[in-house]
Amino acid sequence: MLNQIVLVGRVIHLPEIRETSSGAKVATLHLEVDRNFRNSHGEYEKDIFNVTLWRGVAETTIAVCEIGSLVGIKGRIQANSFETKEQKPFYYCEVIAEKVSFLSTKS
User: Fold this and answer.
1) Domain boundaries, the chain
2) Which burial class, exposed, middle or buried, applies to 9 when counting CB atoms under 10 A from its CB (0-12, 13-18, 19+)?
3) Dist CA 19 CA 58 (whole Å)
């Protein structure tokens, strides 16, 4: 079985580090990634991914990147769920970064 994702895009929101109740450091990076095809207007549309950064990866990323930086993310997709107020299940996925490569500063 394989669960791996690679994204290359620009940072559009600087992550802020926070701590879990157990003391682990975590941050969320907002990454804008171009799609590899043009729409009917001849423009590339973009997807925005929330990427979760843990511990040392979070600390290093916050220290190095700035808005507009081009970064590569290698990680995995994690499926989560919870119950809504109406007691219906809600499912969602998040990208968990295992490695962040800093490819350039903002353009």
Assistant:
1) 5-104
2) buried
3) 11
Q: How far apart are CA 42 and CA 62, in angstroms?
A: 35
Q: Smallest Cα–Cα separation from 50: which of 94, 91, 12, 16?
A: 94
Angstrom distance (rounded) from CA 57 to CA 76? 14
Q: What is the pTM of this model?
A: 0.83
Fold adopted by 5-104: OB fold (Dihydrolipoamide Acetyltransferase, E2P) (2.40.50)
Do the strands 44-54 and 5-13 form a parallel or antiparallel pair, or are they unpaired?
unpaired
Write out pLDDT tens, residues 44-96. 999 999 999 999 999 999 998 899 999 999 999 999 999 999 999 999 999 99
